Automatic annotation (TrEMBL):
Residues 16-81 form the XdhC- CoxI domain. It holds the Pfam family XdhC_C. InterPro entries: MoCofactor_Util/Proc, XdhC_CoxI, XdhC_Rossmann_dom. Residues 170-310 form the XdhC Rossmann domain. This is Xanthine and CO dehydrogenase family maturation factor XdhC/CoxF family protein.
Length: 333
């Protein structure tokens, strides 16, 4: 299970009426901290918790604080300040040197489960959703907001607001055995993975169990596929010149934030010529050779380099340039 909120809420939904629950949210940090504002954790009265608000060092005390919420039915603020030697956080032996401010809220039918059920429905539709946590001690529900009203995470005197994103959607075109570790690593990150290969010989199910969907559609048919057209990232790895060229032709104007082609640059140049397109035609650029240069040539190492690059692009840490490879960023495959 990943710690992505969508996965946490899915687990919570099945148990929400069997226990008392508290939602713990990171609303502010200063200095060093493992999690950042917006991180959430769900805690129940059996001592279970889904998610993390730290690297594991605060959770036991957060659970202790949650009991106070159940006792009086009130939301409350908890601050762990590792910058001050006299703060209780020093007794926990954390030593990261930062401050973490949490807001703990009881979850119940009386406050409409803090709108978490409705939030999950939106995320499961693959749509982002604005969410306002009300910083009021007496029982009150949180609020769903239009994403257009929130430019970024925002903390005020009476609320914390953020836009929560659904699972990233990764499409893998080509179901060779080297796709299996890519699927597994992406699934561990909480991504929704789709894999397609029209070849009958590549229709086996073994090893692809963690894919959300596995299909054998003709490549040209994907142009009309609703889920394909809203992919966040696409990796082409058929190991077949004609099929890879056809896929690249389909992806030239795709809106995915990341498109990557497995194989060396000279092979990709041949693919572009077969498809009668140029590297500069790609709307968001084309990663080739795909993957960060992390070293190693095992399928698992190559998969790690691919997933790491996609993660960095989706999080805005690096960008793919349309017509050239950035000199400071070499890729592995």
């Amino acid at each position: 299970m990943s710690h992505r909120l969508q996965d946490l809420l899915t687990l919570w939904t099945e148990l929400k009426d069997q226990h008392q629950w508290v939602l713990a949210s990171v609303i502010e940090t200063q200095g060093s901290s493992y999690r950042k504002p917006g991180a959430m954790m769900l805690i129940n009265d059996m001592g279970q918790y889904f998610g993390l608000v730290s690297g594991g060092c605060l959770e036991s005390d957060v659970m202790r604080q949650a009991r106070r919420c159940w006792q009086d039915g009130q939301a409350r603020e908890v601050v762990y300040d590792m910058r001050e030697e006299g703060d209780f956080a020093w007794e926990l032996g954390i030593g990261c040197g930062g401050m973490v401010r949490l807001w703990l809220q009881p979850i119940s039918a009386s406050n409409n489960y803090l709108e978490l059920e409705e939030l999950l429905k939106v995320l499961n539709r693959g749509e982002p959703q604005g969410y306002r946590i009300k910083l009021i001690s007496h029982p009150v529900s949180n609020q769903l907001l239009a994403t257009s009203t929130i430019a970024s995470k925002r903390l005020s005197d009476d609320a914390f607001e953020q836009v929560l994103q659904p699972r990233p959607r990764l499409w893998i075109l080509g179901a060779g055995v080297d796709a299996i570790p890519v699927i597994q690593m992406a699934a561990n990150l909480g991504w929704q993975v789709f894999i397609n290969d029209p070849r009958v010989s590549h229709g086996r199910a073994s090893g692809f169990e963690q894919a959300h969907w596995r299909g054998q559609c003709a490549i040209e048919a994907l142009a009309q596929d609703f889920e394909f057209n809203r992919a966040d990232a696409v990796v082409v790895m058929h190991h077949n010149l004609q099929m890879d060229a056809q896929a690249l032709g389909l992806l030239v104007n795709h809106n995915a934030k990341f498109v990557g082609q497995l194989g060396p640059k000279h092979r990709t140049q041949e693919l572009l010529e077969l498809a009668d397109i140029r590297l500069s035609d790609f709307t968001q650029g084309l990663s080739n050779p795909i993957g960060l240069d992390l070293g190693g040539d095992l399928p698992e190492a190559i998969a790690l380099s691919i997933v790491a690059e996609i993660q960095a692009v989706l999080e805005g840490k690096i960008a793919i340039e349309p017509a050239k490879r950035r000199p400071e960023l070499s890729r592995a495959v």
